[in-house]
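User: quick one, fold this
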Amino acid sequence: MKRELYTLADEEFGYFISNLHEQMKKEDLSYVLVGGTAVQAHIFKRLTDQTKKTLSELILSDELRIQDYIRATDDIDLAISSRVLEREGYVNFNRKMNRVLDMLETEEVISPSEEFLLSYKLIRRGIKRPRFQIYVDGEGNDEMQIAMNIGRDKKDLQNLDSENYDTFVDGGQTLQIPFNKDFIISANVIKPEHLIVSKVAKFRAKDTMDVHSLSDLIRDCGEELNLSEIKKLLLPDYEKNYRRFLDLANLTNNLNNH
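Assistant:
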């Protein structure tokens, strides 16, 4: 059974994501977060910008309920540019990724709030699906784990044309989300249109929630989605899903204009 445990508002998860970003930069590995973690990043970035509050302040605020916007996860899905593997070769790419994993394994670090000691132990090594055990103040159990799903090849893009894989990575955005006044969560994240396309192509129950939350918040923030780009990527193979997305996001009136 897949578990849904963490959001970026959890210190142990937010710190891990930001450390991952730093280690990927050090190894010159071009990447974007995709999936549920990417949805969280886009939503939290907009909520903190909109309310002028840090993430720590936001989760303690009575102004909104985080669970109305965010679906928790224990997975980190990321896509690395396929050109990295072509440039580095299989052996050197594996060396770089193993260095990243080694640096993510942290014996002891002070949490962003400075209230806890965090530790991360690599319990399953692998370039595709590594897993980390988390400890807070020395305590950990089987539920406190983070799994990573790492894509590095065009064929790792599911449902959609594999030629879109590097387009999604190249179009990514660096988001900075203030956790508190002293710590900022940084990550490269797939852009909203590409994230929505990847979820609309599947349209599982969790994808429906993610698409609804993200598209509604983007509209509430006064932003406009590039529907032409979304339509281009989804049609003709996913026309039914595209129309369902327009209805879900209250954009049906735009159908004939895009």
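User: anything notable?
Assistant: The chain is about 45% helix and 20% strand.
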